[in-house]
Amino acid sequence: LSKFRETVIEKYPNKVAKKRAKGIVNNDPENIPEIQANIRTIPGIITQRGCTYAGCKGVVLGPTRDIVNITHGPIGCGFYSWLTRRNQTTTTSDAEENFITYCFSTDMQDSNIVFGGEEKLKQAVREAVELFNPKAIGIFSTCPVGLIGDDVHKVAEQMMEEYDNKINIFGFSCEGYKGVSQSAGHHIANNQLYKHLIGNDDTVKGSTKYRINMLGEYNIGGDAFEIERIFEKCGIELVATFSGNSTISSFEQAHTADLSLVMCHRSINYVAEMLETSFGIPWIKVNLIGADSTAKALRKIAAYFEDEELIAKVEEVIAEEMKDVEAAREAVLPKTTGKTSMLFVGGSRAHHYQDLFEELGIRTVAAGYEFGHRDDYEGRRVLPSIKIDADSRNIEEITVKRDEKRYKERMTKEKLEEIQKQVDLEYNDYKGLMPQMEKGALVIDDLSHHEMDKLIEMYKPDIFCAGIKEKYVVQKMGVPLKQLHNYDSGGPYAGFKGAINFYNDISMMVSTSIWKEVKAPWEKEEMVQAVYAY
Ligand code: CFM
Ligand code: HCA
Q1: Whose CA is nearest to atom 8 of ligand 1?
Q2: CA of 84 to the centre of ligand 2 (A)
Q3: Beta strand pairing status for 67-72 and 136-141?
Q4: Is the pLDDT at 336 greater than 80, yes or no?
């Protein structure tokens, strides 16, 4: 497979080739290689990455239904991030607010760029209050806001005063260019959630037993609904999800949970750490993508709470759910076994979905993240050796202290380690994507368009998983593409019922030969003839 690296970089100018070579590695699970990640994309190379604003407004705050999210900027930024991510939500009663279907923007014009947009922003806040009277308003900065120097934080404070502090209004310095990818936007969003919402309300809602937070689950295609169903069936009390199907008050009460589960490590691991430092809530890594992985996660939760009743309930639920899962898997295995896949998604999904493919007997021969960091590839053990560069320094790091009044030790470190010996909780740990991938598989960070073309040409996978920018190009090359961002129109894929959906969708995709039949008109006959005219 090192032939691949030589073949792709051959086309690049020397400087580019040197840089890209460090982001393309052959995996060895026994001896994890170092990969270059979280650095600037080379201009012109055609990346699949998005911007910091997308990570902040679209990804982290997008799925919360009762906050009015105002995009301060030109209309395109607000419009593009308007429901395109398929984050779903459902209210529990008619009295509850749901603003997700709206797109709020200040619709900046040339005159605002020249004379400043703060007045227009204030006016937008007033309009939002008049029409919707929301509990909270978020203000999101786009590129021009940083360039002209509008102060969204000052405006937020002034507007809070105007409404006698009855509405929680806060801003985000998430200008698109602020970081090298969406990842910076996650960090900016989460810091503000920490400062402005988490810990605001000590009310303990629901059961006092088995109280958990779910960190890094965004309810794409209804995944959170399936996860909520499973937890409810097991009697596990979900206090807050960051941020699939979430509400402002759930964030405010998150500190009343007794365990945090980290699903998407990339977008939120630091919040899990902050919750542990401030309030004493331990965190463990889980993956609810894949039926076996879901069962494993439930067993981890039960082991943590050390409660015979919960342990028995969890086993009962797993046994019951697995009947349908196994039947669905058996039915498709003859069609899927032995096929190959490639996964290139933003962060966690390029790892998490390998579990589902394994359940189908499909090998993942190449994978990578658009914007994962080295710890997402190599595991958290490399964290101390990651060098902080100027781009990372540009993003605010907040340090939190123990909340003396509300800190409560849920479990001693010794006890956690004792449980860890029996059940691999992945307490305070994430081992990354590389230990799971086979020896010799390709791991590529921030895949470029040229590299994607070559991957398909050279290895012809049976299925390629990526996003909308790749979809049609790959299909025209004769390979089916499954979008693992928005699931095309499918899903949910999480949990037990989600696994069944995935098995069926993927078995259909790898069984059809329709994409191989597709020939572009110019491949069949010469379409344009050029003649030199002197
Ligand atoms: Fe986490 Fe996500 Fe992902 Fe992500 Fe995203 Fe997404 Fe994604 Mo698209 S938070 S890193 S910034 S799992 S929007 S729900 S699908 S790139 S792999
Ligand atoms: C984003 C959102 C995105 C884009 C997906 C895609 C998503 O990064 O702004 O490129 O197809 O999941 O909707 O990641």
Answers
A1: 485
A2: 8
A3: parallel
A4: yes
Which residue minimizes the CA distance to atom 9 of ligand 2? 54
**Tens digits of residue pLDDT in 421-463:** 999 999 999 999 999 999 999 999 999 999 999 999 999 999 9
> Does 52-179 carry CATH code 2.60.120.10?
no
How many of the other CB atoms lie within 10 Å of CB of 294? 27
**Is the CB of residue 37 less than 8 Å from the CB of residue 60?**
no
Chain centroid to CA 355:
16
Angle at 446 between CA 440 and CA 450, to 5 degrees: 85
pLDDT at 528 over 80: no
**Ligand 2: nearest atom to the Cα of 48:** 10
Contact between 82 and 103 under an 8 Å Cβ cutoff? The reply is: yes
- Among this protein's residues, is 374 annotated catalytic? no
Q: Is 153 a catalytic residue?
A: no
Kindly report the backbone phi and psi dihedral angles of residue 304, in degrees, each rounded to the nearest multiple of 5, phi listed first.
-60, -45
450 tagged catalytic: no
- Between CA 13 and CA 2 the distance in angstroms is 19
| Structure token pair of residue 266 | 């990339």
Q: Bridge partners of 217?
A: 243
Centre of ligand 2 to C-alpha 50, Å, is 7
Task: Please say if the pLDDT value at position 518 is more than 90.
Answer: no
Q: How far apart are CA 25 and CA 1, in angstroms?
A: 9
Nearest to 33 by CA among 353, 349, 435: 435
Closest residue by Cα to atom 16, ligand 1, is 346
Q: Evaluate the CA torsion angle 188, 192, 195, 198 in order and state its sign.
A: negative
**Average pLDDT estimate for 305-330:** 98
For residue 112, the CA-to-ligand 2 centroid distance in Å is 29
Question: Lowest-pLDDT range, 110-114, 231-235, 526-530?
Answer: 526-530
What would the mean pLDDT of 453-476 be, rounded to a whole number? 96
Confidence of residue 257 (pLDDT cuts 50, 70, 90): very high
Give residue limits of the domains in the chain.
Answer: 52-179
Residue type, 308: E
Q: Is residue 80 classed as helix, strand or coil in its secondary structure?
A: helix
Q: Which two tokens stand for residue 18?
A: 């040197």
Q: Please indicate whether residue 367 is annotated as part of the active site.
A: no
Query: In this predicted model, what pLDDT tens digit does every residue of 375-385 receive, in sequence order?
Result: 999 999 999 99
Question: What single-letter amino acid sits at 452?
Answer: M
- The mean pLDDT value of the chain amounts to 96
Q: Which amino acid is at 337?
A: T
Q: What is the pLDDT of residue 429?
A: 97
Q: What is the dihedral of CA 270, 272, 274, 276, to 10 degrees?
A: -150
CA of 143 to the centre of ligand 1 (A): 21
Hunting for tokens 């709020």 — which residue is that? 104
Cis peptide before 492 (omega within 30 of 0): yes
**Sign of the CA dihedral running 525, 457, 349, 400:** negative
